[in-house]
Design goal:
The chain is built from 17 helices and 12 strands. It has 2 domains: 186 residues, Rossmann fold (3-Layer(aba) Sandwich), CATH 3.40.50; 176 residues, Rossmann fold (3-Layer(aba) Sandwich). By secondary structure, the protein is of the alpha/beta class. Helix 10 crosses helix 15. The relative contact order is 0.12. It has a 6-stranded parallel β-sheet, with helices on both faces. A 6-stranded parallel β-sheet has the order 9-8-7-10-11-12, with helices on both faces. It comes from Desulfotignum phosphitoxidans DSM 13687. GO terms for molecular function: glycosyltransferase activity. InterPro entries: Glyco_trans_1 (IPR001296), Glyco_trans_4-like_N (IPR028098).
């Protein structure tokens, strides 16, 4: 008798389509459907909002989806509803990707045959007291999960020091959906217009939050030579947007910066960038950086461990000292004035991502893990 595919419920965040959500979509697209049947779900904590972007995107790709409505930060009714769904749909593995889904998922599978795997995508560097407590509680349940798969070597090393977690750890190299990037050839009309007007275009795709270090980038841009015509495209949204808009005005660079907000077709922006900049204070292995490399774009990033895993200075991109706006300024000038060198680095970076960080390679490793935990 032919064995049915392993049924895996990927439980993600109801927020926008950022790194973790893109990661889930890349994984399910590359898992062999003959071996793994994927369901994509979220716990929706705000009933007033529209369908979560992750759910809309997964449904558009043809995957089964589930939205569990449970208003509030921690609502125990989510445990009951998730448990009911697991039983009704014969879910074999619950794969969680966020402190909230980890904790609710852990309670939901207790006493069932369903296994649970967590993929930590990173911890908050400057979290408030409440968030620190939630993340600490998250790590405390790791020893009771069936597997914990940190997204980067740094996350793995941090958890490896915790004796009771160590035996549950598995490292699987992060991956990016290269086929999706190669399939997109379009460039956003606004960026085409900027290019025709002779602007040097810097770009960023991601959340507008403090740990992304965008204030460092703004300070660097305020020191750029007035003879270099430039524009900065910010694709994404977040709570820091009002602060950044005010900062741009104070630094007298607001006319050069456009906030595009969240965009479903982010690759059309990426295709139009002359350089992708990621000035983060903390990252795992950032997907946006991998996507930029896969699109063969010159990149500049801070010298934090997650980014340094991908970028070797003056080989696959440019690295500047974290928080150092003047050093970042030097790197921006280098990219804008040394085009052949920047393009050569971009080509080397693309080759590295294609060889080592493909979503196909990552999916094969997860297929093996799913089989092992069962």
């Amino acid at each position: 008798m032919k064995q049915r595919p392993i049924r895996v419920l990927q439980l993600g965040s109801p927020a926008g389509l950022y790194g973790a959500e893109r990661w889930i979509l890349a994984l399910v697209r590359h898992l062999d459907p003959a071996k793994v049947e994927s369901v994509v779900g979220v716990i929706k904590d705000d009933p007033g909002k529209a369908d979560p972007p992750l759910i809309r995107e997964a449904a558009a790709l043809g995957f089964q989806t589930v939205t569990i409505n449970a208003p509030g930060r921690i609502n125990l009714s989510a445990v009951r509803r998730l448990r009911q769904y697991i039983f009704a749909n014969k879910i074999d593995i619950l794969h969680t990707h966020w402190y909230k889904t980890d904790m609710i998922g852990f309670l939901a599978v207790m006493g069932t045959r369903c296994k649970i795997i967590s993929t930590p995508h990173g911890w908050s560097k400057e979290a408030g007291f409440a968030l620190k407590c939630y993340e600490m509680m998250d790590r405390m349940i790791f020893p009771w999960l069936d597997a914990v798969v940190p997204l980067s070597p740094e996350l793995y090393a941090g958890l490896e020091k915790k004796f009771f977690v160590k035996k549950k750890l598995t490292f699987i190299q992060n991956g990016v959906d290269i086929t999706e990037i190669q399939a997109c050839k379009n460039v956003h009309p606004q960026l085409i217009q900027w290019k025709e007007q002779g602007f040097f275009i810097l770009g960023y795709i991601g959340q507008l939050i403090h740990r992304k270090g965008l204030d460092v980038l703004f300070n660097a841009l305020s020191m750029l030579d007035k003879n270099l015509p430039w524009k900065l495209a910010l694709v994404g949204d977040g709570p820091l947007r009002p602060f950044l808009e005010t900062l741009a005005k104070d630094l007298e660079i607001s006319e050069n910066i456009m906030f595009f907000g969240f965009q479903g077709h982010r690759l059309e922006f990426l295709n139009g960038f002359d350089v992708f900049v990621l000035p983060s204070r903390l990252e795992g292995i950032p997907r946006c950086l991998m996507e930029a490399l896969a699109a063969q774009k010159p990149v500049i990033c801070s010298d934090i461990p997650g980014s340094a895993e991908l970028i070797k200075d003056k080989k696959t991109g440019y690295i500047f000292k974290s928080e150092d706006s003047k050093h970042l300024l030097q790197k921006i000038v280098s990219v804008s004035t040394h085009h052949p060198e920047a393009k050569k680095m971009a080509s080397t970076g693309k080759q590295k991502v294609c060889n080592k960080y493909s979503a196909g390679r990552m999916a094969l490793a997860y297929e093996r893990l799913y089989t092992q935990v069962l």
